[in-house]
Protein 1
Amino acid sequence: MQVVGIESASGRSSIFIGERLNNLPNHLPPGRAIVITDDNLLRLYRAELPSLPVLSIGCGESVKTLETVKSLYETLVDLEADRSTFLIGIGGGVVCDVAGFVASTFMRGLRFGFVATTLLAQVDASVGGKNGVNLGGFKNLVGSFNQPEFVLCDLRLLDSLPEGEVANGMAEIVKHALIADAGMFAFLEERAEEALALDPATIEKLVGRSIAIKAGVVGRDEREAGERRILNFGHTFGHALEKVGRWSHGEAVSVGMVLAAGLSVKMGRLPEAAYQRMTALLRRLRLPVAAAADPKQVLEALRRDKKREAAVIHFVLLDDIGRASVKEVEIRELERQLVEFPEILRQESRP
Ligand code: GLY
């Protein structure tokens, strides 16, 4: 089993890749513990949970709200949780975000850990210490930086994921390779079919490398004052696409990466051949490289998303496979470039 550590101002986190859900008790401190999870996990894996109180938050992005947080606080009061109670979030990104935020704020902070059960949670959402909920149409507007003491990534649980959930995680895996590791990108090219089939050895290597890349970046810049911004590669356009369309996070990030890489080619930073390698791999991983979206709506969503920033945003450009940099780019410039990519963002035909 590979173990990756993060040392940061908000604490130390150990991420165990390949650890089993049923070994969770071995990672808990002595004393009281309470599980926060979702309905899907309960349906599939209730029998594997330790005998602890279990709170379920429902399912999906729509429950990532302050109302859910309030209801969890109230249940914790009913259960007489106190400062010594340990919270465990078991689930995907939504459970980790909500459980981490509740743990960080209830009675000014409880100790907590996660069992990440989806590919997206394992390679991204459970790692990094950002916790929080959505508010008023804005993603993660309310939250905290606080590292879980441990994250267990039980790779066996991935077998029950629907295809769309695999795509969500796969897009983040490709992102990590693109921004930081040309060797990992070449491995993905060699093993794309095995990765899609969740071949255990292939997936263990990809999850381990993804986490090591993210942990390294977070350890150097937990609060996203600089380097951590590179983890947003593909997400500026990706979040805008998620807002205007019916694309999943992975699909939107995939098209967002193509747009950002296309822009990097136009700016003379990224060789065209690298762009072609990237789109070829995304296609093999059954991720989209184009979206039928109205560019005007995408731009409007992007502008709204960035409303608290100036006309200039930090935008992640690709310099080569395995190397990215963050540049200040005017939103107007992004707009200009976006409409010049009709092959990526096609005007949706109106009825
Ligand atoms: N918890 C996700 C992150 O910190 O990026």
Protein 2
Amino acid sequence: MGIMEGKSVLVTGVRNERSIAWHAALSLHREGANVIFSVFSEREQTGVTRLLEGAGFSAPIFLCDATDEAQVANLFEKVGEVSEGKLAGVLHSMAFANKSELEGEYIATSKEGFSIAHVSSSFTLVTLAKGARELMKAGGGGSIVALTYLGAERVVPNYNIMGVAKASLEASARYLSADLGADNIRVNSVSAGPIRTLAARAIAGLDAMIKEVAVRSPLKRETTPAEVGDTILFLMSEWARGITGETIYVDCGYHIMGY
Ligand code: IMJ
């Protein structure tokens, strides 16, 4: 019997088989969770349908642009219908910045680009938390997990506006933890090492960077999406019942190094 047996969880942000969110869904399913998916567009809806066929399980897949509060309200209405009105977990796995601002100098960030990055990568955690609150309360509590990256607190070349938006996301998770703790709803961030996902593809110099980070890391290897998925599962499970407002690093120890 898995630790997540009888629990429903919402996983956002799956795009393909490399997505960290997909690996989180596999971990959660393995431990008995009823996984519900929310994706950004019809293209991902088709993709997740195929992934589920390959993995041998079925799950509802809803469409939602999390920057639109009406769509989020509608999403959680549908989630409630397929989860007997109770929700144990939500994974926030979404980010967007204009491609042109993920290169060159941070000082060139536009007002519009600054806003887009923050609304789509950070404010969406607030909209998801608002939507999930009543369904989590109904189940006696819940766990919200957001994906972040070291560029939130250290300067990583080209990460630019996304670093500032991830810093906002991590701080937002702490404020949400304080708001929701009385309802036994926990909010944590998982800071993953660099992984070749769609979100990282086409970033100049990323491949060399992933290799160098592996060499410098205590574990001497690259971070895998499967081990990030297992940490997300842990945070959503009762095993993590005393952890909230935290940022957990799943980066083979890279962030502890000074040189
Ligand atoms: C992204 C940009 C620059 C450096 C980067 C990344 N490094 C890593 C990433 C070193 C690991 C991937 N990452 C952690 C992200 O959060 C990516 C966010 C992202 C990626 C894109 C690419 C395509 C696009 N907009 C994007 N918005 C956010 O148009």
